[in-house]
Write the structure tokens for this entry.
Amino acid sequence: MAKASDSAAAGELLLAAFNRMRDELLSTLTLYVGNRDDAHDIAQEAFLKCWRHREEVLRVENLRAWIYRIALNTARDNRRNRWYQRRRPLEDACDYAAADPPQPCQTEQQEFLVHLRRAIAELRKDEREVFLLRQNADLTYEEIAQLRGVPVGTVKTQMRSALAKLRQALQQFAPQPAHDCQSLKRDLLE
Amino acid sequence: MKNCTEYQQLLLEHLYGLLEEDQRRDLEAHLADCPACQSAQERAYQEQRWLAQAACWSFEDVRFEAPPLSVLAPQQTEAGKPAWASWIQEHLPLWLLAACLLLACGLAIWLATSTSHLAPDWAMRSSPPDRSALESDSRKSSGPLTGFAEPENLTSTEPIRAQVQQFAAAPRSADKSASSLCEAELQSAHSPTEKQLRRGIELSPGAPVQQADAGLPRGQAGSLLQAPQSAPAEGAFPGRPGSGTGPAVDRPAAEKAALALDSGKPKGRSAGAAIQGATRQENFPAGLSLAERFAVVRVVASPADRLLAQVEILDFPLSRWEHDNLSRQALADAVRNAPALLPSTSVNSNATVASPAGPQSLLVPQQIRPGFENAATNNLQVIGRDRVPVESLQHLQQWTVRLPKQEGNREAWPEIEVPIESGSLSRCISQVRLPMNSFAYLPAVACLPLPQPEELFVQVIPVEPRELRPLELITEVKITMTDDLGQQLAPEVGLERRRYAVRPGNDTANAPTFVSVYQTRLRRPANAPSGVWLHLRDTRGLLTPLQLHWKLEPGGSKPVGWQHTPLGVPLAAFAFDTITDQRGPTSSVMPMPAQECNDLILARTQWCSASPNGSASDEAIPFSLVDGLVCRDHDQALLLAHAHRQACRLERSLVERLRQYARQQQTDQPVLTSPTPPFVPGQPPRRVPGSSLSANDSLGQLLSQWLDRPTTSRRWLFVLETGLVTVLIGLCAACGIFGSVSGSRLHLRWWRRSLVMLLVLVAAWLAWTAVQAHTNPERRQPNTLEPVGLRDCFLAQTNPDASSARPGR
């Protein structure tokens, strides 16, 4: 009976964690695999894996790192197995513009975000993985190093490299100072 | 000291926590004083927000819920297939599977081919005899059958000995290691058993004690104590002369004592290793014609089925003696350059030997066609026959026969009668009768036609069975003449013993080799039928008993037939029919044909005349008994005992090695097979044994190995071991190829795993081999049966010093 209750509690905990981390996880997976549908499949498969082993949730110290580890391993396997089936060019597969619904007067910024996401997706795989784990999963560099099985210095180096590339993208596609709609209308009336 | 630009480059890294502690403090100190860098920090904050906004966006339409139980059904796909099957179906393309399958098949065939040469001879046979049919036939047989040893009465080493016989039955071009092993085993086969090594054996003065003095090699004194099985069972072959109706054997008291010790223990059936031994150049009998034909007849019992035997006749000229050491051309040149070595009458034959035209131009009997006349009446069934050219000038004919079951006297053995009807040898050999017994030495019988057709001159030369080397042997040989019904026609006649010193060449510096020759002149009684039987027996049991069939052709003036009846050791027959100039003897003392050669020195005619006590009787010669070995000289007996102990030790080692060999070859029941392909008339003889096999035979050999596995468990073991290696190699190749093409770590991981498993398998095999080698240090290679140094423990008669040091010389 106690075991069943623990399992139920672990399931609830896991379910809450996945729903809480939904945006970060799916965004990370989308940028990692370059395909939204694959990201959904991977997230579902990772969730099922975690659900099958939900008894371990109560013993896991860092649940976020555990979930991300399973998700990234699933994503790796998925990329290996289906690389020849579903791999498409990033420009065609990833419609990052659809990530954020279009809003009036935000077209320029939205375009900037698309460029920025494309820059993230074009990072090297390890750099992209480190950046996403740091940015979205909010893991420390030590946790990232432990998750990936590499030294902390390597992780920091990869992060620096990723930031350098992203800074270039930022400087290249950065929008001009913001003009709100009211000031734009006033300028037009005048 | 950094400027603001450098500090501003570090702002984003600072926000992501990448700076070291001293860099962070330096940057924060600078930011506190520099307004421009403070504004840059604000931009860095904005960039971080942009990055966060770009890296994460909302998925409001997605919600995680607890999955239903059907989804959680482990490892099952929607189609109900196992997960691994779906995985393979999904991830492995068909072409890759087909390629792996082809690769696995190729590897399996290659493995089978590469290991087939390690298999014994019988494993190369296309199909073994149908034993079930044989068993059913044996149940149906109901005639008067002779005794045959039951397997339960055999000693523990009997199967091994029988296996040795199987090895020895192979032609001399077979694997040398096996042949050497056979020789070594044969040497030890004549050693006395542990029972015979008991002390205190009382021997009467008439016991056969002359073996050491007779120059017997290999410490075979113990074999003297084994009584010969010269008398087949009564009524074994009714109506056949010599089959139970022959003259009674007068066994000495020592033989009876030995029989008493060995009661219930069947005699070992030794095999002939004459072919292997006939290749030694140093034992070439100077003075004998190179073209004189040898007919080696032997019977080998199957170790797998006691009712199966193999009869072999190998005919070859004496010139083949030097085959391994001397080529034909070199042999011919040597003969031409030294004509004085040979009788003048054989010069033409020597030229024939040197002819490169092939066997067609040589005097090879093409029609030695044995048949088994007693097959119908005694259920002796000929299962298969084969005639194969072993080498040039040599032909091996094999018959696989099924012997009658044992009934009654277990000491008796069935006889196999091999009539030889045509061919050059038929002038002297008409029939060969082979009781399956074991005797020490072969009698080489020479029958010389005399001017008077009613007379026959018979010479018997004891031949060492392993090397077919004439030797000096002191025994007593007698001949009885009977008709077809076994009725004695004339009194028993003892053969006169003569002793010849054979000196190779005319070099007097060489020590002569002494040869014993037993000879007599027979005269057919007036009332004798045209065909009479000459029963030649050795009262000491050293020589194989013979039954010669002397038959007069209706209008002929020369004797044409004789027959000998040996045993399980090979029978050698010197046929002098190729000598064109038959010089018949004119006096009562017949010269040996080779005596006319210049290098033959007639030595003392009577060996016993030089015995220590001056007596001319063998029975008066004193003897010593050491460890059950009988010798005339005490020192000699000590040497013999030491040699015998060493031989027994080596024999045990050999037995163990043979068992390991049998285990390794995955068969303990070899069948009687021919190791050579079928003989095709008109085609040049192919030298098959030991040579490489064609690729077309690979699959057949694989199937043959499958079929020749004696038991189902061994067959499946063979399949398992082959399949395991094949699957591992196929898995390794598939994962390696697929992983290298796709860059998949999963497949590379499996590639590594399969590679590791393969290595583990190989390591386990090596470890097992090492353990085997450690268990038996003499076995250096798992599939190589090397001869052991039995020769070192021989009291070789070829040692002239030892021979001359004997008393009585």
